[in-house]
Amino acid sequence: MPAGAAGRRAVPSRRQWLLAVGGTAVAGGAAAAGFGLARGTAPGTSPADAELVRDVADPPPGEELMTDHGLLIRLLLIYRSLGGSHAAGQPLPAPDVHDAALIIHDYIEAFHEELEEAYVFPRLRRAGQLTGTVSTLLLQHARGRQITQLLLAESGGAGSLPASAADRVTPAMAAFVRMYEPHEAREDTVVYPAYRRLLPPAELAELGWRFAQLGREQFGRDGFSAMVGRVAQIEQALGIYDLSLFTPPNLTPPPG
Prior knowledge:
Blueprint: H1 14-32, H2 61-87, H3 94-126, H4 131-154, H5 163-198, H6 201-219, H7 223-238
């Protein structure tokens, strides 16, 4: 044994941490389900965003994950907006690219996807359900993380990205959007409903509490609201925060 090895402790992986913390929560989970505050909002958490999330009882695990997908959709819109700006000959703001990729790295990949990989996908595989779909989703998680690492590496500075970096970043963002739109749609409409059908109501309630507890452990009580606020700030910087911008024109001709 190498010198000093006996005194060192192995650092657990993030998934081991998720499973371990979740395990310690089980004892009070079912009794506490529905009474925790999963998505609380502290005053001033995101002053740029009027859509502050209210305190709610811990949602079922599928609903929790689908709410995360709402956050991801807004990030995909940011990537699409940045790509459109580059196509129009406008410079790409490095901080906006970096901040969006960092939210995906910290919350979507390091928490949301880890929950799927630790709880959802193994349960489906054990039941022999959607095994091919799960394998594809896992591969897409890996490819998405590769793209995120590229975006973070290319956008670490201030100001606008150099033309060469922008030419690498733009197709990477487009590939991410192209993959994750059907990815999350398939999870919301097929994977999560199948997962919920496998679980009895008591276990669903317990897992809802457990997922919320894991989120509080990793990001604090108002972690999700803080992520929403960060996304809103990027949207405002890019001029795409106003929801009415996405309303199409009236196609009905005026009477007379």
